[in-house]
């Protein structure tokens, strides 16, 4: 793996194992190659007219270059609409893009998952909505301003080996703690059910939940995901950089150093956390988004 920037750390190698829920390795499987992944979560910001000097066409090249330079094999985007995705597809031809718009028509924010098709293969994919009817496209029954959805994939190395379930979400901002908490409860319940259904021929060894949660790590939504005894998720940042005085992931187009970290990478299963960081440096003379991407190096084993 290429080195990250500030805060890149090899001092902590942590295994997280949950064999009661995820697939348990056998002796023959243990001899197979591990899957090494660099993953990113990145709110790329909608194209708002009010952003003036930071409109999408002024910064799309910087966003694409930042993704390329990062060396990430999996990228989870938020605030990505179809025209933005088309622009990135032209500039990132090595990536396969998975996801659809959150509205019933298929338009709107997509929470796309990008993966390197030359290194990884897609085993499963789908979307579900944060509502009372999760399988109904565009459903919005909780009083949110917009529909909210999760895009998910199961990925595996091109030559087989360990598989990982990846989910990507963008939760509502502002004073919507109840909606955020309700959303993560549904996500966690969906994960548990999915892992049960996948036992046997479609086992997965690890999972990654990525996104813009619009909440700090001391919030109820974070606790609901990390403290659930049935499947506690691990916040990668808290493992590697627990004492960072400025972990905030909102840069506001100007390189702000803040404390509120609202973009998370959470993991569970047969997974080793090798490193994590956020990418704060300008690209091509500008900040590509008002958020900093968060990136981590992971190792998944059978």
Instruction: Please state the overall shape, judged from the principal axes of the Cα atoms.
Output: globular
Q: Which consecutive residue ranges, at least 5 long each, have pLDDT under 50?
A: 1-13, 18-31
How much strand content do the residues show? 25-35%
- Indicate the CATH class: Alpha Beta
Secondary structural class: alpha+beta
Tell me what the CATH architecture is.
Answer: 4-Layer Sandwich
The averaged pLDDT comes out at 91
Order of adjacent strands in the largest pleated sheet: 1-12-13-2-3-5-4
At the fourth level of CATH, the homologous superfamily is Endonuclease/exonuclease/phosphatase
| CATH overall fold name | Deoxyribonuclease I, Chain A
The number of domains: 1
Number of strands: 13
Termini gap: 20 Å
Output the helix-strand order: EHEHEHEEEEEHEHEHEEE
Largest sheet: 7 strands, mixed
Distinct helical segment count: 6
Work out the helicity level: 10-25%
Nearest-angstrom radius of gyration? 18 Å
Task: Provide a descriptive summary of the structure in words.
The protein has 302 residues and is α+β, with helices and mostly antiparallel strands. The chain is 21% helix and 28% strand. The chain has helices at residues 27-30, 56-70, 82-91, 177-197, 220-226, 236-240; strands at residues 14-16, 35-43, 74-78, 95-98, 113-116, 120-129, 149-157, 160-170, 206-212, 234-235, 263-269, 271-278, 294-300. Strand 2, helix 2 (56-70) and strand 3 (74-78) form a beta-alpha-beta unit. The protein is globular.
């Amino acid at each position: 793996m290429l080195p990250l920037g500030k805060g890149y750390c090899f001092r902590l190698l942590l295994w997280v194992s949950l064999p009661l829920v995820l697939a348990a390795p056998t002796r023959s499987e243990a001899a197979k190659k591990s899957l090494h992944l660099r993953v990113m979560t990145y709110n790329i910001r909608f194209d708002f007219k009010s952003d003036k000097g930071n409109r999408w066409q002024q910064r799309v090249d910087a966003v694409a270059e930042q993704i390329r330079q990062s060396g990430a094999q999996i990228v989870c985007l938020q605030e990505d609409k179809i025209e933005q995705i088309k622009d990135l597809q032209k500039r990132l031809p090595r990536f396969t893009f998975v996801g659809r718009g959150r509205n019933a028509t298929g338009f709107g924010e997509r929470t796309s998952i990008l993966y390197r098709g030359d290194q990884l293969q897609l085993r499963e994919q789908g979307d579900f909505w944060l509502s009372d009817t999760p399988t109904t496209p565009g459903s919005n029954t909780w009083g949110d301003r917009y529909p909210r959805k999760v895009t998910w994939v199961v990925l595996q190395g091109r030559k087989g080996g360990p598989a990982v379930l990846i989910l990507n979400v963008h939760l509502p901002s502002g004073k919507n703690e109840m909606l955020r908490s309700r959303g993560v409860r549904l996500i966690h319940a969906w994960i548990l059910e999915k892992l049960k259904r996948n036992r046997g021929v479609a086992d997965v060894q690890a999972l990654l939940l990525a996104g813009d949660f619009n909440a700090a790590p001391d919030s109820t939504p974070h606790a609901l995901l990390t403290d659930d005894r049935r499947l506690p998720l691990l916040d990668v940042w808290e493992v590697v950089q627990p004492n960072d005085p400025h972990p905030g992931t909102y840069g506001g187009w100007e390189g702000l150093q803040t404390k509120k970290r609202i973009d998370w990478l959470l993991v569970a299963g047969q997974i080793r956390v090798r490193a994590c960081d956020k990418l704060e440096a300008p690209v091509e003379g500008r900040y590509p988004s008002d958020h900093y991407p968060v990136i981590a190096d992971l190792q998944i084993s059978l």
